[in-house]
């Protein structure tokens, strides 16, 4: 059977030459389509996936039409580079017998570094002073001391717990929400106490979002949620854009309920040129880049390529990761 592999994840594409010889030596035919922006949409994936046995995907739209087009031409498995699989129709994959893998726990520390950095930045207005000096000014921001402040973390998985550990080191009181009950002893080692969502929202001087995007977490931070927060709260989102209702956030910024925010992710990516969020000079924006370090990228590139070797039967070993959706 042909060994065909579609690669759409930009991180692997960028470093493809590091793995090209190994892949080609095993007779793997790799297809790398052009990707404009963050990911391929459904129509682009429907075209690219034809004739592919495996896919190493980024944040592409892999909905039922894509999966049906793949299944009809021999698709066996999807390897999602990274953790979030919200772009994949997993029930359809299960129905069609297409396995879905992701790479859990591979960059918790890196995303947590980013989240903690955003918290420190919002507390001191570092991005505002940088912009001022670059434009010829000499702005001095009277910031906020972090020690003694309370931060609420939404999502206590690997990224959330690593973030809590860093924020605890700042001297902050750290409380966290997760729909699953987490072992208190594990949380105590990270310096966080589990609390209800209402308590996290109402007590936090900062609210940091690190949870997965699920049907339950979509627009979790809504108009109602912002109303329950402290006046002048500071928000950080390193999770997925749609966890935050951007229209509700805009209203909260206009009213002063939210003083400022650091957003590494957005409902639409890249952030549209006409997004109303751009008018708020106090905001800090990222480019969905929380996991992007040289070490993390190399680690996950190697892991996804090795998993492809397992699935093609080249390594002679069972798949090194457990699928989210079994074929």
Describe this structure in a few short sentences.
This protein folds into two domains: 4-106 and 293-312, 3-Layer(aba) Sandwich (Rossmann fold), CATH 3.40.50; 108-285, 3-Layer(aba) Sandwich (Rossmann fold), CATH 3.40.50.
- Structural class, by secondary structure, is alpha/beta
In what order do the strands lie side by side in the largest sheet? 8-7-6-9-10-11-12
State Rg: 21 Å
The pLDDT mean sits at: 97
Top CATH class of the largest domain:
Alpha Beta
CATH architecture of the largest domain: 3-Layer(aba) Sandwich
Shape: globular
Secondary structure: number of strands: 12
Describe the structure.
- This is D-3-phosphoglycerate dehydrogenase.
- Pfam families: 2-Hacid_dh (PF00389), 2-Hacid_dh_C (PF02826).
- Keywords: Oxidoreductase.
- There is one protein chain.
- The chain is α/β, with parallel strands linked by helices and 327 residues long.
- It folds into two domains: 4-106 and 293-312, Rossmann fold, CATH 3.40.50.720; 108-285, Rossmann fold (3-Layer(aba) Sandwich), CATH 3.40.50.720.
- 38% of the residues lie in helices and 14% in strands.
- The chain has 13 helices and twelve strands.
- The protein has helices spanning 10-14, 17-25, 42-48, 64-72, 90-96, 108-124, 126-134, 158-169, 184-190, 197-203, 223-227, 246-255, 294-312, and strands at residues 4-7, 29-31, 54-57, 77-80, 99-101, 150-154, 173-177, 193-194, 206-209, 233-237, 258-263, 284-285.
- The chain has a seven-stranded parallel beta sheet, sandwiched between helices.
- Strand 6, helix 8 and strand 7 form a beta-alpha-beta unit.
- It is globular and about 65 Å long.
- The mean pLDDT is 97.
């Amino acid at each position: 059977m042909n060994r065909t592999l579609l690669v759409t994840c930009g991180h692997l594409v960028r470093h493809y030459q590091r793995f090209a010889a190994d892949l080609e030596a095993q007779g793997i035919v790799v297809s790398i389509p052009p990707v404009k922006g963050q990911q391929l949409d459904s129509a682009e994936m429907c075209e690219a996936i034809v004739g592919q046995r495996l896919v190493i995907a980024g944040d592409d739209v892999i909905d039922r039409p894509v999966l049906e087009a793949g299944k009809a031409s021999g698709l066996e498995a999807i390897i999602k580079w990274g953790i979030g699989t919200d772009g994949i129709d997993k029930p359809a994959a299960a129905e069609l017998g297409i396995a879905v893998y992701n790479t859990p726990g591979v960059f918790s520390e890196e995303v947590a570094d980013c989240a903690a950095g955003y918290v420190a930045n919002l507390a001191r207005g570092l991005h505002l002073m940088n912009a001022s000096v670059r434009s010829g000014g000499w702005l001095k921001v009277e910031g906020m001391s972090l020690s003694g402040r309370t931060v609420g973390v939404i999502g206590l998985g690997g990224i959330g717990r690593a973030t809590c550990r860093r924020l605890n080191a700042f001297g902050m009181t750290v409380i966290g929400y997760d729909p699953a009950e987490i072992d208190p002893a594990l949380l105590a080692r990270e310096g966080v106490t589990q609390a209800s969502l209402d308590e996290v929202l109402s007590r936090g001087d900062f609210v940091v979002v690190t949870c997965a995007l699920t049907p339950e977490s979509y627009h979790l931070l809504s108009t109602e949620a912002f109303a329950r927060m402290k006046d002048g709260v500071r928000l950080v989102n390193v999770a997925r854009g749609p966890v935050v209702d951007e229209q509700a956030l805009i209203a909260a910024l206009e009213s002063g309920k939210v003083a400022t925010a650091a957003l590494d992710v957005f409902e639409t990516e890249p952030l549209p040129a006409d997004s109303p969020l751009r008018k708020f000079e106090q905001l800090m924006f990222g480019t969905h880049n929380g996991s992007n370090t040289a070490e993390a990228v190399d680690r996950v590139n190697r892991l996804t390529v090795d998993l492809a070797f397992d699935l093609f039967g080249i390594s002679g070993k069972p798949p090194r990761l457990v699928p989210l959706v079994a074929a």
